[in-house]
Each structure stands twice: as structure tokens, then as C-alpha cells.
Amino acid sequence: MLIVExxxxxxxxxxxxxxxxxxxxxxxxxxxxxxxxxxxxxADWRLEAGSxxxxxEFRRLASGAxxxxxxxxxxxxxx
Length: 79
Prior knowledge:
Number of helices: 2
Mean pLDDT: 86
Structural class: alpha+beta
Radius of gyration: 13 Å
Number of strands: 4
Helix content: 25-40%
Strand content: 15-25%
Distance between the termini: 32 Å
């Protein structure tokens, strides 16, 4: 199973929500991954809209062995 269009509201507890998302996915062998709904629509779901703590937590967890994303910050102007 692949979870699509998931995100966490940009609130004070977003870092905890990110941890819970990664823990839930990691704890279920039937889930192969997830797609973060990184859009500003009805609410601002983008990772960039959250706190530095929640972005750092996402980068830390996404770079782990289970996920292995290259989570380096992008530099320069956005297209």
C-alpha cells in the first residue's frame, strides 16, 4: 500500500505529527511509503509552511535507512 496525499496541519504539534506518520509507516510492512501533499490549498500543507523543527524532523526521519531520501536543502531560486 502507498499512502497518497498525506500531510500534517502546520500547527505547534506538526513535528509530533510528522514523527507519528513515519512511525506508522515504518511499523507496517504492508505500507511501502507515502506522498506528502505539499500544496497550499484550503490549508497550507507545504513542509516549508511549518516550523523549522517540523522540517528538521521530516528531513531527519526521511533520511533514515527505511526511506533513504536525499533531504538536503535546495539552494538558489525556485523555478
